[in-house]
Structures are given as C-alpha cells and as structure tokens.
Amino acid sequence: xxxxxxxxxxxxxxxxxxxxxxxxxxxxxxxxxxxxxxxxxxxxxxxxxxxxxxxxxxxxxxxxxxxxxxxxxxxxxxxxxxxxxxxxxxxxxxxxxxxxxxxxxxxxxxxxxxxxxxxxxxxxxxxxxxxxxxxxxxxxxxxxxxxxxxxxxxxxxxxxxxxxxxxxxxxxxxxxxxxxxxxxxxxxxxxxxxxxxxxxxxxxxxxxxxxxxxxxxxxxxxxxxxxxxxxxxxxxxxxxxxx
Length: 243
Fold this sequence. Notes:
Layout: H1 2-19, E1 26-29, E2 37-43, H2 50-53, H3 56-61, E3 65-69, H4 90-106, E4 110-120, H5 122-132, E5 138-142, E6 170-175, H6 183-195, E7 200-205, H7 224-240
Parallel strand pairs: 2-3, 2-4, 4-5, 5-6, 6-7
Antiparallel strand pairs: 1-3
C-alpha cells in the first residue's frame, strides 16, 4: 500500500513541481490606466540587464506595458563570456523567453493578442528568435547580433535559422559604421533570412556605429537623433502589426 502511495505522489505531483518553477528574473511595468495594454518584451545588450532599464520609460510613454527579462543572471553570463549566449546557453534561454511570453499572456493587464519585442545588440538576437518562431506579433532588432560566432566565416547559422515563411515581421535597424556587428555580415544574414521566407524590414543609418543609444559608454558615441528615430520607427512598426 505504501509503495502504491509513493508511486501516486511521484507520478501525479511531479508535473505540478515542473509547472511551478519560477521564471527568470524580469521587471514588469505598466502605463497608467485601467485597461489591457499592448506589451513589449525588452531584451538587454551584452552589457547586462542594466542596459535595458533606460528603454523601459520610452515604451511606457508610448502606451506599452513592458516585460524586461534578465537572461544573463541565471547562467552566469557577462560581457566577458557573452558569446556563450548564442551557443552553450541558447536553448535554455529560448525556453526561458517562451516562459516569459506565457506569463505575459496570463497577465490580466496585458492584451495577449498584441505582444511585441525589441532587442538591443545581444537582445536583437533574441528578438529574432521570438519573431522567427512567430511567438510575438512583430519585433525590432536595434544594432542586433547577426553573426553569432567568432572568426571570419558564418558557420553558425543563427539567428537566421529561426526564420521561415511562418515568421512574424522583424524590423532591423543598423548602422553602416557598426564596429561590433559589421554591416557586411548583417547584409549576409538579412539575405539569408529573406531566402528562408522571413518578413524583414531594414533601415540602415549612415555613419552610425553600434549602441547609438548608450549615453555613458566609453566605447560608443551616443547619437540622440538616431536614438529618437529608432524608437519612433519601432513604435510605428508595432502599431502597424497590432491586431
């Protein structure tokens, strides 16, 4: 009888424990008002979660609720081992971001039919995942990662492999003077995505480097005009693809 009870508990309660696991750390913020809001998943750069905090008020001001997950902390990722994001930790992060989307769809303050994503640098890679797999209405990649491996070749086909004719639209915003994600590699990736049937809208900023929105960076130069234009284009793109 005792063995039967142990089997019952193990068999029937195991799924409960699996389903009750905590999602990765994320910050949630809503615009003021008593209604359901369209929502944006904001995805940080290789500089970590702190780099996305400044983006949150911009989208709140434009009427979007924001979910901003930290996909680095759980896996001990930092700028020094950032390339492991796209290799060793790629599949776990995919799963964790899908859990965030599921959580958003259960949020009574979120319009589950209008969920979008905007990713910055490293986060742009994950915006490709969410749009490539058709998980969100549309996405935007700001100076995103198109070549997710070291070296001169494109042996790692991600994020291009995420895309197909079933993907949702992605807006790619990139500087032609990007010193981190070279424009030539971006063009190669964009061509591949279109060949796969991906829905891609591209805008290239002339004489603009990586991380144009970084106001306190020692490496990159802040460009206010590009920063404002990128936000404007992104918001307009999301509204165009709202249901």
